[in-house]
What we know:
This protein is mostly beta strands. It is built from five helices and 42 strands. The strands form eleven sheets. Strands 2-15-14-6-12-8-10 form a seven-stranded mixed β-sheet. Helix 2 crosses helix 4 (451-466).
Amino acid sequence: xxxxxxCLFTLLLSVTAVNAQSVVAKMKADANAVVKKExxxxxxxxxxxxxxxxxxxxxxxxxxxxxxTDDLDYNWALQLTKRGTxxxxxxxxxxxxxxxxxxxxxxxxxxxxxxxxxxxxxxxxVDPTTGSIYDAVAEADVPSTxxxxxxxxxxxxxxxxxxxxxxxxxxxxxxxxxxxLLVDNSVxxxxxxxxxxxxxxxxxxxxxxxxxxxxxxxxxxxxxAVVKGGSFIDDDMAIDGISSxxxxxxxxxxxxxxxxxxxxxxxxxxxYTLNVSLDGNVVESLKDVIALTNSTQIVERTFSIPAxxxxxxxxxxxxxxxINGAAPTQNVDDDEAAAEFSVYTESMPRQMNLVEQYTSTxxxxxxxxxxxxxxxxxxxxxxxxxSVHGSGMDYGHSTPDPFTTDESDAIGNTFTTGYPTATFNxxxxxxxxxxxxxxxxxxxxxxxxxAAQAAEQMISxxxxxxxxxxxxxxxxxxxxxxxxxxxxxxxxxGDAVADFKLLVGEDAGLTVYLTEDNxxxxxxxxxxxxxxxxxxxxxxxxxxxxxxxxxxxxxxxxKLSWTGETSYSNTYTVTLDSDWKPENMHVIAFIARPVTxxxxxxxxxxxxxxxxxLGESGTVGISGVETNGEDVKEVGRYSLDGAKISAPVKxxxxxxxxxxxxxxxIVK
Length: 668
């Protein structure tokens, strides 16, 4: 699986101008100058639609781009926030250009959400060291455009020079009436790169015309090129990523892994051999495992993990051993791919699952997401629901979302690109049938008629998949509230397995949230009528599970304070705001992988979570770690009189475990 950095904010390219008269611009910072089309979803999983036209390739021509299929997803359409004439471009870096150096760009294609009339295609060289963008070296007029792919033949082919990047752009007029700009976020999941979405003009209305970087938030502009020639050799193959079926496994179990393989040479190999290695040692050789083509094909295999393998992280890799009987010696950078997995022996029962909903009072589709999560709570009693309000929909509205804070905006900007969405234990589901968009967050804007179906068939299975990561620590919460001072004291403690630091990491973070229910504020709602879509203002909409405060010092989690080899205890004190009602509030604590600028999308998962009413306490009774059989987790919680409850309540709670056993715990 391709690892993608989880960006905490839009990354900006820092460039230095050089003493060359042909330099036309350097990159400028962007300031939220683009918005995504909102769209209610159906729970039916659909492949991204392919366009009818396939660009014709002459002999010796190949597609070049961040992705090279004909797919477009019209749901991923963007709109700038200022009227004007713009160029939308993508910078083709060395990773994309690769062996195309020396070849000639003969054609360009760009995808549009709607027709924009006439356009113009331009190609600009870019100095990869300084980031300086030079004058266009190729142009082509486009008399008319269509929705979908627009194919353009260059009047004069352009030779790709060594040590040079290229920005390829198309021109259009932004009218603020249509969502024109298509990006590859769902058809090329995990493929977004810095400078994959660029804009030339004045998108901020600041009076400064230049190139602006839209960052990696939305994916790359749907722009591709056709190249004839290059430095390709006759016999060459590539391993296009590898992923394992699980991040954690016990010794002696079967590991399922998948990898992509394709031909990238001038000739199709008559035979080839791939080596499968564990921690650098070859464990299996695969001979002609699949008939190669010039497109990536997925191979799925299983491998028996040695029973005596050590706990901790390990590497499985696939590499090209020979092509037509000879070991490759040229263009070998893409001949191997590796994936990491961890081996464990002990685990703990899971307490609760963290669901973070990203929403806004100014988002007309967001009430649909609330309906879906309400249906989820009917299915499961192991869910902690946190509504994270953000300012992303405040543009154009006179009243900002009253529940947005700097902390909630930071969290929302990190984990989502739109509303209504949610993350489930911040787990990346690497399964296209469940997560076709290939993103960390999941869209919740399902038609309310299908909310129950979506919760049962999409959302709940996603949580189950997140639970394939075993739990390696418990969370106890002891909260005490002083009504006279409004001071809240919180102690979070727990036990961990012996290999916790190997499996979750010494940098694992503990985050503590405060949420509040029964908050009344105006909520926008889109309603479909026979005359089209209208917007309602629900004045007395009740907002529950609203994130009020992040008590931990770091919004993404503080380091655990270890009191022993396998025990920890962190303490916090906070004074409640005067307008918060403690009787409607909860304390939530969870342990997760850290979130930094270097975090990968598949490495920010939440390992365990717990929740109590403010001023109360909740502990979990642990009779010992689980070492044999399947990992045991909590599947149901009941009061002493047998009534099913969705969260810990004061008094004796009876917990039903997945192995059929029951446990009694005291919630203070």
